[in-house]
């Protein structure tokens, strides 16, 4: 049966078909009066043509009325539904994917105020409010329509989360009647913007996998904000939509985002420890980065800072350029070991969800560093001495690092996991067990630093440690080479690397003072940057002097000269030596110290020690710190892991469990909103068209969708009807011309 | 000359017509002066007056004695000399009052044109010494001026044509029969009419005039609108004589109307040719002088 997208237009517009008749009657009333002499000829003509003229007039009137009627019907977007689609045969199905990603909390747009379902609280309307209102309207429209109409509604976060299972709907598929409306209203009232980044695109792909396509005409409504980052960067989306369209599913995109009004959105892009040693009582630099997505610069932005929940003086950022970011650094110091939280927050704006961010720091009482010195005289004289004094200068300058010394032979027997870094200083050789132990340590996230010197043997390094790139050592060594003095150029050239970033720049006098007389050359033809390698320092000749390469989860750095002032004078009274060594230790140890910042949706995983920890772990979930208990399960590697499968809210997630000896343990995990959600740039119809090539969809802003919107299944008749209009008008013109109603060129006089 | 005659006589019209000669195509009763041919030539005896010789006068009428004494050419005129008797029958029926909206102030009504033409012809005839009578008719003779030769007769004709009239429906048969009964002698009868009405009555009337021996000429006056039917838009046509109306889009009826009026014109031409009547179709948009020149030229060429 035919249905109309804009049914009221039909009822209001069809009477317009009478307009030609009214005009005709008005013309008869307004006709000119002529006192005429030659009536007999006129009467003769009238007698002759009466029937013909009458028929032509009726035909013309009918054509004109038909043209108006068909235009009205075409504008009302008629559709023809499949047989039985609306009259009790099959059902007309409407599937709604409601985007509940963070960006849907955008409060841009007109300052309308909505009342929360919970009660009297009022707040500006968000895109999600508009989306929810639209779905309610759609449901009401379906309930009021004729025929069997089914509706199911799903939130994008639920649909995407259940990608490997049947989709989870907040309104399961059900026939819409006035009696089922309340259930839909209740379900929608209970829906809220999630803190995840799962937009409509991902949900559509997930939902498409479980989409039931059958003979019933189906419309898929995607109700969201259609942000660029979500809809313009995903190849799988277009193919998923094309497949749905090929199955006969009608695609309708309802854009609920509002045009920005007033200030734009600020996003806390990053909050992380920027370096240093996370030891108790030691200052740690922390960086906070704020992005301004507005079209105008943001002035005097105040960033609130909390350490373990206690406020501390905030930061003021004078100006953040439009579309740019600003980074500020501040120091924190925690007096006790354990997990500590840092929180940063911006003043509320159009999207409050991305205005807060958390970071967790694992502070140790002391940072243990193992120093393995190849000097047979012990660590008190050579390389070990200079490294030790750089890492732990003494009580006057607390670094939190406690160096431990061990001979190379002890590597195989020591529990290396206790150490945040292992430094091997000009070691001549290691036995196989030691090599295995140090490689296992690095693979597990440990940091290893090699210094090379006169005792270093290239054959050992290349065969046992480097092993053609398979081993621990970053580069193969060729042999020691001397660097001829040059008074004009500094010997050391810092590369673009965070360890030496503090020394980078124009002619740093501290580095200029460093003289390198000898170093190990890398085998000719080897590219130190291959396999993820990176230079830290180079010689003025272009040869690498310090090279790093990731190894497993850890990091290995090779400095191709001595730590002691044997082949260079760097460690002899040059302050840059201490700075770079501390930064180097912090850098290589980050794999062990870093606590990954989680994004909403990620699981929180707590590794337990079998035989020491109880297996029940309580997760305290923000913001209410509701307790969710999980039992640890074997992780496949012999360990136990307690896992909070899905995080739904940002904030500090705390895990508490007991050890078998009765002591209580606690760990923190920072779960943050994906800062990309703060990018509120809209895809727009044009870019959607380009991004979704070959996908037949209809996109419209939510405020433009009118009543009767549910009747959109089936094939559209708008284009054929417009073709009919053209034909009718052509026939009308032909009839009117034949009837002599068109002006004609003056004819020659009859006389 | 009265105000009425001045309105009827356009100087331009008179100036052009004076150079022409009104020629009778057939011999009519009466003595012909000038170029008028007459079967009773020379029988008039009572001298009336001399007048200046004008080009075209018969040299046999020149008074040579006067020429001998005064060395100027004069022509003798006689009292009983019977010149052309011209009777102008002007249709005064209601249909002659049509004037289209577009033509208001631009074109005369058919009656105004008929009056102009009649006065011009009267002046022309009187200038040649012919006698001129005039009658206005609709379904009968409503007013008339008997034929006279005197120069002031043109004033009488103009006064008659300017007299306000009660225009009624026309009846050509009755009107022309009354005219035939009114005219005692044969002469030239010029009918100025749109000829709308009963076509059989027109035929009978003209036949009656011809049967009485009159030389009949028909000046058929029609408005441009009646010939071209240029109307557009919804229009209600109300009959000037017929109690009927037609509400229509004129373009829908134009083809049929033009066919009907062309058939009418063909019928009229055929009828006048059959009865050996001169015929000229004159449109109200034409210049009256040009129309008279055309009429007289055709008439003189037909006579020669």
Secondary-structure content class of chain B: alpha/beta
The CATH architecture category of the largest domain in chain B equals 3-Layer(aba) Sandwich
User: What's the end-to-end separation of chain A, in Å?
Assistant: 63 Å
What's the helix count of chain B? 10
Which percent range describes the beta-strand content of chain A?
25-35%
Neighbour order of strands in the largest sheet of chain A: 19-18-20-21-27-26-25-23
Computed over alpha carbons, the radius of gyration of chain A is 38 Å
Tell me what portion of residues of chain B adopts beta-strand conformation: 15-25%
CATH class of the largest domain in chain A: Alpha Beta
User: What summary fits the major beta sheet of chain B?
Assistant: 6 strands, mixed
What does the oligomeric state look like here? heterodimer
Identify the overall geometry of chain A: elongated
> By CATH's scheme, which homologous superfamily of the largest domain in chain A applies?
Class I glutamine amidotransferase (GATase) domain
Give the CATH architecture of the largest domain in chain A: 3-Layer(aba) Sandwich
Q: Into how many domains do the coordinates of chain B divide?
A: 2
Mean pLDDT of chain B: 78
Please, could you describe this protein's structure?
By secondary structure, chain A is of the alpha/beta class. Chain A has five domains: 2-80 and 718-738, no CATH class; 92-260 and 682-713, Rossmann fold; 266-364, Immunoglobulins (Immunoglobulin-like); 367-593, Class I glutamine amidotransferase (GATase) domain (Rossmann fold), CATH 3.40.50.880; 598-672, Immunoglobulins (Immunoglobulin-like), CATH 2.60.40.10. Chain A is built from 17 helices and 37 strands. In chain A, the strands form nine sheets. An eight-stranded mixed β-sheet of chain A has the order 19-18-20-21-27-26-25-23, with helices on both faces. In chain A, strands 8-7-4-9-10-36 form a six-stranded mixed β-sheet, with helices on both faces. In chain A, helix 2 (19-29) runs antiparallel to helix 3 (39-75), helix 4 packs antiparallel against helix 6 (181-190) and helix 7 (200-209) packs across helix 9 (235-246). Chain A starts with a strand and ends in a 13-residue tail after the last helix. Chain B is α/β, with parallel strands linked by helices. Chain B has two domains: 3-22 and 82-303, 3-Layer(aba) Sandwich (Rossmann fold); 47-78, no CATH class. Chain B has ten helices and ten strands. A six-stranded mixed β-sheet of chain B has the order 5-4-3-6-7-10, sandwiched between helices. In chain B, a hairpin with a 5-residue loop joins strand 8 and strand 9. Chain B is elongated and about 75 Å long. In chain B, 45% of the residues are buried. Classes of the chains: A alpha/beta (751), B alpha/beta (304). At the A-B interface, strand 2 and helix 3 of A face helix 8, strand 8, strand 9 and helix 9 of B.
């Amino acid at each position: 049966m035919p249905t109309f997208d804009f049914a009221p237009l039909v009822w209001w517009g069809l009477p317009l078909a009478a307009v030609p008749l009214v005009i005709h009657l008005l013309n008869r009333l307004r006709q000119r009066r002529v006192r005429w002499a030659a009536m007999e000829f006129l009467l003769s003509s009238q007698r002759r043509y009466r029937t013909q003229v009458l028929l032509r007039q009726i035909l013309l009137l009918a054509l004109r009325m038909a043209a108006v009627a068909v235009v009205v019907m075409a504008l009302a977007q008629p559709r023809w539904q499949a047989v039985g689609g609306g009259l009790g045969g099959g059902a007309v199905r409407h599937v709604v994917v409601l985007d509940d990603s963070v960006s849907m909390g955008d409060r841009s747009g007109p300052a309308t105020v909505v009342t929360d379902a919970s009660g009297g609280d009022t707040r500006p309307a968000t895109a999600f409010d508009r989306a929810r209102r639209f779905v309610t309207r759609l449901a009401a429209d379906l309930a009021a329509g004729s025929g069997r109409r089914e509706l199911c509604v799903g939130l994008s976060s639920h649909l995407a989360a259940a990608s490997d299972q049947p989709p989870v709907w907040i309104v399961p598929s059900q026939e819409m009647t006035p009696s089922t409306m309340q259930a839909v209203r209740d379900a929608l009232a209970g829906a809220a913007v999630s803190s995840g980044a799962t937009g409509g695109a991902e949900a559509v792909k997930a939902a498409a996998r479980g989409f039931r396509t059958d003979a019933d005409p189906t419309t898929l409504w995607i109700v969201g904000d259609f942000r660029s980052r979500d809809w313009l960067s995903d190849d799988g989306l277009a193919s998923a939509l094309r497949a749905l369209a090929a199955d006969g599913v009608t695609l309708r995109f309802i854009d609920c985002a509002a045009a920005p009004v007033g200030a734009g959105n600020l996003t806390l892009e990053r909050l992380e420890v920027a370096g240093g040693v996370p030891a108790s009582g030691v200052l740690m630099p922390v960086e906070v980065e704020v992005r301004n997505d507005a079209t105008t610069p943001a002035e005097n932005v105040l960033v609130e800072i909390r350490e373990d929940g206690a406020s501390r003086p905030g930061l003021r950022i004078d100006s953040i350029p439009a579309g740019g970011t600003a980074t500020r650094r501040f120091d924190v110091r925690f007096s006790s070991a354990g997990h500590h939280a840092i929180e940063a927050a911006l003043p509320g704006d159009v999207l409050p969800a991305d205005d807060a961010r958390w970071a967790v720091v694992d502070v140790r009482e002391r940072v243990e560093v193992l120093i393995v010195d190849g000097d047979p005289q012990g660590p008190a004289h050579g390389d070990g001495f200079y490294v030790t004094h750089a890492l732990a200068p003494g009580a006057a300058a607390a670094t939190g690092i406690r160096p431990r010394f061990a001979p190379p032979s002890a590597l195989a027997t020591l529990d290396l996991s206790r150490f945040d870094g292992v430094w091997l200083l000009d070691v001549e050789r290691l036995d196989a067990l030691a090599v295995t132990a140090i490689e296992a340590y690095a693979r597990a996230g440990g940091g290893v630093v090699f210094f090379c010197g006169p005792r270093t043997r290239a054959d050992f390094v290349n065969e046992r440690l480097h092993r053609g790139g398979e081993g621990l050592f970053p580069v193969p060594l060729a042999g020691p080479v001397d660097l001829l003095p040059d008074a004009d150029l500094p010997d050391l050239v810092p590369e673009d690397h965070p360890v030496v970033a503090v020394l980078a720049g124009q002619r740093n006098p501290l580095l200029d003072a460093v003289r390198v007389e000898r170093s190990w050359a890398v085998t000719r033809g080897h590219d130190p940057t291959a396999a993820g390698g990176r230079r830290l320092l180079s010689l003025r000749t272009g040869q690498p002097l310090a090279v790093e390469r990731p190894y497993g989860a850890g990091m290995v750095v090779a400095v191709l000269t001595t730590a002691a002032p044997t082949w260079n004078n760097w460690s002899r009274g040059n302050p840059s030596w201490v700075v770079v060594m501390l930064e180097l230790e912090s850098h290589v140890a980050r794999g062990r110290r870093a606590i990954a910042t989680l994004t909403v949706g990620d699981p929180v995983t707590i590794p337990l020690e079998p035989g020491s920890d109880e297996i029940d772990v309580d997760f305290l979930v923000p913001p209410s710190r509701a307790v969710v208990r999980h039992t640890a399960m074997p992780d496949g590697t012999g360990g136990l892991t307690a896992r909070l499968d899905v995080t739904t809210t940002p904030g500090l997630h705390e895990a508490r469990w007991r050890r078998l000896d009765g002591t209580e343990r606690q760990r923190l995990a920072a779960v943050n909103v994906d800062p990309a959600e703060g990018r509120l740039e809209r895809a727009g119809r044009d870019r959607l068209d380009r991004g979704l090539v070959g996908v037949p969809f209809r996109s419209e802003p939510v405020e433009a969708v009118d009543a009767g919107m549910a009747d959109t299944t089936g094939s559209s008749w708008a284009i054929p009807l417009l073709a009919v209009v053209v034909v009718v008008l052509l026939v009308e013109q032909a009839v009117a011309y034949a009837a002599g109603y068109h002006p004609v060129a003056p004819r020659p006089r009859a006389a | 000359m009265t105000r009425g005659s001045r309105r009827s006589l356009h100087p331009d019209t008179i100036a052009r017509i004076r150079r022409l000669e009104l020629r009778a195509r057939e011999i009519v009763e009466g003595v012909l002066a000038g170029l008028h041919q007459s079967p009773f030539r020379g029988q008039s005896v009572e001298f009336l007056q001399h007048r200046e010789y004008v080009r075209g006068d018969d040299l046999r009428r020149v008074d040579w004695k006067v020429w001998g004494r005064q060395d100027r050419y004069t022509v003798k005129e006689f009292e009983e000399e019977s010149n052309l008797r011209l009777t102008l029958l002007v249709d005064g029926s209601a249909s002659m009052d049509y004037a289209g909206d577009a033509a208001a102030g631009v074109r005369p009504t058919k009656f105004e044109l008929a009056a102009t033409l009649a006065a011009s012809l009267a002046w022309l005839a009187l200038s040649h010494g012919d006698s001129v009578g005039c009658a206005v008719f609709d379904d009968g003779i409503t007013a008339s001026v008997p034929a006279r030769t005197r120069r002031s007769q043109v004033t009488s004709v103009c006064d008659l044509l300017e007299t306000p009239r009660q225009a009624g429906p026309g009846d050509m048969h009755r009107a022309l029969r009354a005219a035939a009964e009114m005219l005692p002698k044969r002469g030239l009868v010029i009918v100025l009419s749109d000829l709308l009405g009963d076509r059989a009555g027109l035929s009978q009337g003209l036949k009656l005039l011809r049967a009485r021996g009159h030389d009949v000429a028909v000046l058929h006056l029609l408005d441009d609108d009646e010939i071209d039917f240029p109307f557009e838009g919804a229009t209600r046509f109300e009959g000037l004589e017929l109690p009927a109306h037609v509400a229509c889009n004129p373009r829908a009826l134009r083809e049929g109307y033009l066919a009907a009026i062309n058939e009418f014109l063909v019928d009229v031409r055929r009828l006048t040719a059959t009865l050996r009547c001169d015929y000229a179709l004159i449109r109200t948009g034409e210049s009256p002088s040009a129309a008279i020149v055309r009429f007289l030229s055709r008439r003189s060429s037909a006579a020669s």
